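4.2 Preliminary Data

To establish feasibility before requesting continued support, the project team ran the inverse folding procedure on a target of 225 residues. The structure was first converted into the token representation described in Section 3, and no sequence information of any kind was made available to the design step. The complete token record follows.
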């Protein structure tokens, strides 16, 4: 029987859920006007019902772990952890920027993925396509001023990620950018990248946290007082 993977992508306002059976992915969108924690469970159950299966038949869960929406990522990670714990299935955390990088054009060798870290700061990470076609990071995910980072881009580097719209004023008209639809993580790319990522051990599942690199807006307000 083909492997069956539940795919959770809640890094942005419009979250998506998928059920992959082999290479076929059935997708469902979460309502962007509702909080993911109210919409996620019934959407997942709807996918199970459509496939005629139960959660216990899952091979595992692949979850996009950020960076991205503080609340959305926490809902996705906690849901994945609860399901893996309850059913004993595998859990594979997949960095969101790695998913976005994997959607780059075939003629792209270097791509820089950026996201909005608020207050003029950007999440940034650069990726390079290897000889086997897989993308490898050339630096750790980090935060730095968007204007500074984008001002250092060289012509051979493509730009991708949801931060392109936010920081458009810092981007040169000559800069090569990935098409709009591929700047946010897709479920097929989540599945393909997730297949290259290791599953967590039982102990690691409990310690899994999203890639925030910073606290929530509420936490930062308290610390700045």
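Position-by-position output of the design step:
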């Amino acid at each position: 029987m083909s492997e069956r993977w539940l795919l959770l992508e809640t890094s942005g306002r419009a979250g998506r859920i998928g059920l992959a059976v082999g290479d076929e992915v059935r997708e469902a969108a979460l309502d962007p006007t509702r909080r993911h924690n109210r919409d996620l469970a019934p959407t997942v159950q709807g996918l199970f019902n459509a496939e005629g299966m139960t959660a216990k038949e899952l091979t595992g869960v692949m979850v996009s772990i950020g960076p991205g929406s503080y609340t959305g990522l926490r809902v996705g990670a906690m849901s994945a952890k609860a399901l893996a714990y309850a059913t004993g299935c595998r859990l594979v955390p997949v960095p969101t920027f790695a998913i976005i990088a994997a959607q780059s054009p075939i003629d792209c060798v270097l791509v820089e993925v950026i996201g909005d870290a608020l207050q003029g700061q950007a999440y940034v990470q650069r990726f390079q396509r290897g000889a086997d076609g897989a993308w490898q990071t050339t630096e750790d995910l980090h935060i730095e001023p968007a204007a500074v980072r984008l001002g250092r881009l060289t012509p051979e580097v493509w730009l991708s990620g949801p931060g392109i719209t936010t920081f458009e004023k810092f981007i040169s008209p000559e800069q090569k950018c990935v098409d709009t639809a591929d700047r946010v993580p897709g479920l097929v790319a989540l599945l393909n990248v997730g297949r290259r990522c290791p599953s967590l051990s039982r102990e690691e599942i409990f310690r899994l946290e999203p890639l925030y690199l910073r606290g929530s807006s509420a936490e930062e307000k308290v610390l700045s007082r």
